[in-house]
Amino acid sequence: MEKPIQTVIFLYFCTANEIFRSIFEKSIIKNMSDIINILPDSIANQIAAGEVIQRPASVVKELVENSVDAGADKISVVVKGAGRTLVQVADNGKGMSHTDARMSFERHATSKISKAGDLFGLRTMGFRGEALASIAAVAAVEMRTRQAGADFGTVVEIAASNIIRHEPDSCVEGTVFAVKNLFFNVPARRKFLKSDETELRHIIYEFQRVALANPHIELSLYNGTEALYELPAGNFKQRITAIFGKKSKNYASQLIDIAAETNLVKISGFVGSPQSASRNATQFFFVNGRFMRHPYFGKAIQMAYDNMLPHDTQPIYFITLEVKPENIDVNVHPTKTEIKFEDEKEIFAIIMSCVRESLGKFNFLPSLDFDTNRTLDIPAYLADNKPDMPRVNTDNNYNPFAAAHSTSSNRGISVKNWDMLYERRQQQTSPYDTAEQKAFFSPDEVAKSNFWIYRDKYLITAVKSGLMIIDRQLALERITYEQILIRLQQGQKATQALLFAETITFSADENITFETILPELEAMGFDIDKLSAPSYTIAGIPSFLTEVGSVPDLLRDIVGYVVDNTTVGKEIYEKIAIRTAKAYARKTHSNLNAQETEALIASLFQCRTPNYSPEGIKTVVILSDADIWG
Fold first, then answer.
1. Can you give the pTM of this predicted structure?
2. What pLDDT, in 10s, does the model give residues 298-326?
3. What whole-number distance in Å separates Cα of residue 42 and Cα of residue 47?
4. What are phi and psi of 496, to 5 degrees?
């Protein structure tokens, strides 16, 4: 009987302990407030959407990449209100079933991966199942989809992650997405979107990346009813030319094939000739059909050109890399544009070698080129012929200290008149003593000085504190820049009509910038008429630009310079003035005569900031005696 009694007592105390513990826990819960909550799905989706959907261009990118993954060979994109009002993407891909159409909007719902190992063999664009859920969290979405051969399709309507409609629909084969009123429920995010021109330009950039990576797919992009791109299927070079061929007349001829295949990587694509390099060069990297940003590999291409590129320019390149999927990690960033390579250093060397080889093949690398016209005519040696000994004529009466022989071969001044050297130097000096005062030289004093031209670029004169060196081109840039701004501020407009009107055509992204700055260009004195976008007729130019050279090249240069800043007003004026002054100075600085040179110097020191160019480079440098003689 003892064991059952002990068991009962033990159970009694265990039960009592549980009761007391329960009472204690409830007391704590009752007397303390919780601060950690599980977020509702709608809020969690909005937070996640901020990582994937940053602007309308992000929607275009995700939807078009989904169409590529669906096996479509024809994709059409239509945007309205720079993507704020509408982004519509239609494809003829394989479509989705009734169930998959609904499941595709759930977070992390994907057909691309089923286990962790699948992440190391990815060849599709999307794989994390975040895109559609993120879009549906911050916009109103309507999707119509139908599989090939199916009797009917499916329509799904969803807004702010709430399902509105999911039912059968009679639609065409493929998938059509319509994303409306982006960020309607996140006003703070919508408020911080940029101007329509900027957002549309970002959409064009994303479209270009997908289009270049998939030249075998027919793609089109419409801004409302205006066709920005209508690209037929073709090869890589044809696609490049279709998108960027309007940048110059012979764009395709400037592209140089590159190719290399190793155990680590297969490289193909094109680089531009050194002559095609520009400040805002077109540069694209793709790996396994995916666009990527990779400054390290970009440096390899820059190094391959060595010293062939003009100052402050970048080479054009369109390069595709094919590597084993397991040797790269595309899951680094939500936008999947930053990719890690396992053999990064080795691929760097392969890219640089490949580009150098292609440049050398097309005779763009420097080679040894001896001037055979200047070589000595050395007769063949014959044993029977003894050479004549050289004869040296000497003057035994020569006295190097005699006044009659002591003249300067360079100056033509005899030694007995040595004091004239100091008189001449005194005439060339400036009344100012320190290099810090170089920006305040008297224009009259400086203009009266004797200037020497060195390497057809620098003006050199003696001043009291040493040698003053002026960069003629930079000086002319500063003068022209300030003159343009003064004319714009004062509303001065003088147009010189062209004898023969010229025509210019821009690419879609360039045209957006050009239309933005067109009022400022016309205020400067340009006479430009629109034919049909993106083509224009140039009938006149500002009167001070008659020596600028190619007007279309100047306008392209200006557009390329302001492409990253579409703020109208003062900043646009300044950017246009900088680029116009640079083009004008580059064309005319070496053609100045003596009088024009004196006028240039006088004008320079009348500028508000004479000692710096518009881009902040020194126009004037003074070398002190200590700098010269050490």
1. 0.69
2. 999 999 988 788 777 889 999 999 998 88
3. 9
4. -105, 115
